[in-house]
Design goal:
Strand content: under 5%
Radius of gyration: 19 Å
Distance between the termini: 56 Å
Number of domains: 1
Number of helices: 3
Order of helices and strands: HHH
Largest sheet: none
Shape: elongated
Amino acid sequence: MKMWRLIGLIGILALLILAAQPSVAAGLVPCDTNCGVCDLFILAKNVLNFVIEIAFGLGAIFFAWGALTIMTAGGSETKYSEGIKIITSAVYGLLIVLCAWLIVGTVLQFLTGSPSKLPWNEIKCSQS
């Protein structure tokens, strides 16, 4: 029964994310019709930042779910360890996402020739 609840929760979250896509897409695409290589890199950065926001939202949900599991465990060691496992997985997932953000952001800066000044994740193309 718990597996069906998890699948239902993930399905509802996926529907909410997909429903928000058209309203957010206007901010992701940096150009109208005449797009260049620089615009492709800016689009990649915008998509990456959008995925980071979704990952932190899901991370917060899973962190709260693990905390709720621990609080309702009572004296059950299995429920307690399940909650710890959920929180640990959420933290590891967020660390992986942040490391990927750092690597991809650095590669995008290198490819576009952006200066390495602050803010370091801003792309300023020197190409046309």
